[in-house]
Amino acid sequence: MTNRVAFKIPHDTRKGSLHDNIIEACKRRKKLSKDKMETRYATWKKDEESFIAYMPERDVDAARRASRESGKPEYTTIELPYAYATLMSAVSYWSTVFLSRDPVFQYAGRHGEADDQVKALEAVMDYQRLMGKMMVPLYVWLLDAGKYGVGILGVDWKEESEVVSRYENVQETFMGLPVEGKFKRKKVVDRIRGYEGNNLYNVKPQKFFPDPRQTLAKFQNGEFVIIETELSWNDVREREQAEEYFNIKQLEKERLSALRNQEGATKIEQPSEGQEDLLKMLDLKTFQIDECYIELRPKDWGLGNTEFPEKWAFTIANEKIVIGARPMGSYHNKFPFELIEYEIDGYALFNRSMMEVIRPLNNVISWLFNSHFYNVRKCLNDMFLVDPSKVVMKDMLDPAAGKLIRLKPSAYGTDLKSVAQQFQVTDVTQQHLRDVLVVIDFAQRVSGVSDNIMGVLDPRGRKTATEVRTAGGAGAGRQKTTTEYMSAMGFEPLGSQMAQNTQQYMSLERQFRIAGDQVRGKAHPFVEVNPEAIQGFFDFVPVDGTLPVDRFAQANLWRDLMREAMQSETLAGAYDWVDMFGWVAQLAGMKNINRFKINVRPDSVLEAEARAGN
CA geometry: angle at 126 spanning 124 and 130, to 5°? Predict the structure, then answer.
């Protein structure tokens, strides 16, 4: 690809060589970051367990499970997924705010760029959002921010080309002339050009290693960023063909050596050293890849004579072989990642996640729930004081319902009250379920995710429409601050990176569908876009953090306004009601209303076309 052509570094394992120095420099930086990042791994693991409502099985739970599997009813300890419900409600709010805009990526000219340029850029970005399949990474980005406290999104430029091969019957020729009735099979290979545009991908926080001398919110001010990933052998060879990777022969030797040393990894017998082709065919092993982005002075690293710092990207396979090296060369001159955090704090290296904030309250909710039902279970299992010399104990110990308890012959005719007596049982956990509601109220105050945001009306007492709207607005206000922070921290720089990548690397001239409401009323809803049409300086239009207006309710409001306005001669003549009707219809969800619009033309024009035979 145009921005990934490699600066080839020969494979050299000697101490002090350029190849060895790059590997050691990347290792030192990764270790510096990993020592700090690992302090967060245990918390992130707990966040993941809270998200899936996971509860580790204790010895007593294992004993109960064994009893249940043998047919005896036993109580089950469960983790109530309240934190999960809260997070998913918050993510629903965030995704509605960010991803329901049309278009999602909106721009405004910074230095007087024309509206046609803005329209062209938004059309290209909306095409990339659809064809680049960006929506799923954006949803996961928002979810990671709530689950881990930080969401990490990578962005780079992608130029796809698919290789499609087939066999065809081709007529044989002799001295350039076709031979009648003779054909031969020939393999035809077509390279089809596919998607060209920005590519978004998610990075798991455990695989992300930024410069720990800066907070995550300011990671772009650091001197390096490293991510761990994996690549298959086919991916490596494909990038070698695109001149992105080198030293592949040395990497292949590493691959074959690793295959020969595997023990018990497969039921297939490992081939001998001479069967290289069979080894290649059976190889499904992936390589550990470290993508290292470092700001450096090329002269100090032996990569040129430039003394001013530049950003370079190195690709290291299995921490042994440099297979990629290049100056990044992007005009935005940033590391190709953007972060969003859930908690607003400008000084902590790691900020808390929603799962971490709610976890103590979720634990209390689970304890209240489990202790109550454990006590109920205890009450259901009647407790007796029994004289074993007078009662058949097998009948007393039978857990089945509807007991028939037999007396021993020596107890015949005695007072039954002296044989067995039931203990008085008191349920001391009757208030626990009511206490659960109290804890949930605290959790809602902490998270700002109220019942209204969850789509649940509070059943306690009657509420007026004003009270419901006020409570919902207050909860939305808490989320509004969070979304505005995410917009400023992540979406705005992401939009700028993507726009500058498109300006720098887009090479094709195409027609793109106009994005958003600007297509309304257009006879030709497409715009011609070439690299020159989108040059300039553009700013991402920030998200204001409020939910989009209910379009159906808005359409009803416009309908009432139009009905009232049409009764006034002054207002009736001041607006284009035909165009307004089409806009309101589209607002209500009728996307193709303009196809029914009649194009009225003068009689003279129609007569001229009739005489022309049209």
Answer: 115
In the predicted structure, residue 244 carries a pLDDT above the cut 60: yes
Please tell me whether the overall predicted TM-score, pTM, comes out greater than 0.85 for this model.
no
Selected residue with higher pLDDT from 608 and 326: 326
CB 130 within 8 Å of CB 504: no
Q: Confirm if 24 and 314 have CB atoms less than 8 A apart.
A: no
H or E element, residue 71:
none
The DSSP code sequence of 126-159 is HHHHHHTT-HHHHHHHHHHHHHHSEEEEEEEEEE
Q: Torsions phi, psi of 236, nearest 5?
A: -65, -45
Of 518, 595, 585, 582, residue with least CA distance to 551? 585
Q: What span, in angstroms and rounded, lies between the C-alpha atoms of 367 and 369? A: 5
How does DSSP classify residue 221?
A: G
Place of tokens 């279970």: 377
Burial class (CB in 10 A: 0-12, 13-18, 19+), 39: exposed
Return d(Cα 216, Cα 500) in angstroms, integer: 23
How far is Cα 461 from Cα 176, in angstroms, rounded to an integer?
92
Peptide bond into 56 cis (omega under 30): no
Asked if residue 157 lies in contact with residue 363, where contact means CB atoms within 8 angstroms, the answer is no
3 touches 199 (CB < 8 A)? no
Cβ neighbours around 23 below 10 Å, total:
20
Residue 578 above 80 pLDDT? no
Region class of 133: left (phi > 0), else alpha (psi between -120 and 50), else beta: left
Tokens of 558: 């416009």
Percentages helix, strand, coil for the chain (3-state, rounded to 5) are 45, 20, 35
Tokens 């499970």 belong to which residue? 65
- Name the pLDDT band for 263 (thresholds 50, 70, 90): very low
Give Dmax (Cα) for the chain: 123
Q: And the tokens for 309?
A: 């710092």
Candidates 527, 496, 510, 520; CA nearest to 123 is: 527
The per-residue pLDDT of the chain, averaged, comes to: 82
- In 318-443, where do the E strands start and end? 321-327, 337-341, 384-386, 420-422
| Sole residue written with tokens 């001239």 | 509
Tokens, residue 565: 């306005």
- DSSP 8-state class, residue 261: T
